[in-house]
Amino acid sequence: MNYLTNSNGDEYGPRLPLVTDNLEGNRTISTSETVTYNGKAAASAVTINPLQYHPIMSAQGDRVASYWGNSDNLVYTAENGVVVVETAGSATVACTDPDRNLELAFESLTTTVKRFVAKVTDSSGGVLYGWVMGVAAATNLYTFSVYSTRVAETNDWVGALGSFDQTKGCKLEIFRYDSSVSFGTGTTLTEEVRCPYEYSPNWKKYLDYASVSLSAGQWFCDYMRGLIIGKRADATASETVTYNIQANAEISVSTSGTTGSLIDDAAFGVATSSVTPAGFLADETSPDSVDEGDVGAARMTLNRRVHVTTWGDVPTTFTNFGANATLNVKASAGNVFSLSCNNENAADMYVQLHNTVTVPAGGGVPIFTFRVPAGGDVLIGTDFFTTAGAAFATGIAFAFSTTKETYTAGTATDHTTQILYK
Prior knowledge:
It is built from four helices and 29 strands.
């Protein structure tokens, strides 16, 4: 793919657009949806699944995502003195660097998603890779602990150990992990590979490549088009897929001591009231221009009517800092506008919303359930609940659960949950 290069050597292209002056604010949010795998319900069947939103943003939210092994995600290379321990359960790779501290650059915290992937290539082209967690430093020698999945902490390499031969030397490359895509069950599409035709509208190319070149469980993603293509490892019918997107940011301002919005509230289903700015006549709240006689010495121009959200229109914030695994949010009918949850557990958990005036009993069936990755966060906003909010006819209760389809109490202190409701 060809990129434009600026005077600083930075490259711009479809995945990293040219920077321009822009008055519109944006924010990165996490969204989830249930993907029903199409095609035959069997291992090795090809599935092509468009997601609801695109483009899919990187894990950090600074650009459109990509496969980690792409060359523009390469952040470090070592070719001399690289030593690989292949043993399952104690996989490592070591190298020497007298110039920089690799421990401070690449180590990730335990129980959190990993930020970097270590790839080693032997002299005959054999490849092993895995996610970097701990980095042990001994003077200039750095030993990377390598894990076979990004979330679960299994100290193994991905690849054929028996085919890897480092006796004639090997190369170490470290890549930034760029994708934000996460699967609920994680048993159907298990290994991401490079997308062969990024930004292509041609499904025939995708289908031909998937049918011939992929092994069961392998998948790739056209991140710009929000398209996941893979060869299934099992017959799972559907699962939750979580990923990052960018959304317009709403910015609040203060007008005469009242909180307002730079976005037209009426377009978002929020009740509004008109305000007459100081110096204007009551019947001239939205003229194209105001005569000097109306405002004294000043001439002013209004582009649009000013809308202000009154305190009665603002949703209520519910916050639980880990005191309860489940709690009633509202003991009467209401609407939920957004939900966020942080999961500090080492395993994936589920945050649920139940239609009840009390709290759900064990085995209770939720109205909504969202997977929260181990050590990760999920934010569900009006792009899912709509600007009118999701209606609960009886009451609103939240639950932090170890199971998806029913409520099984998780450890309360492992989460922080916040809900906006009315």
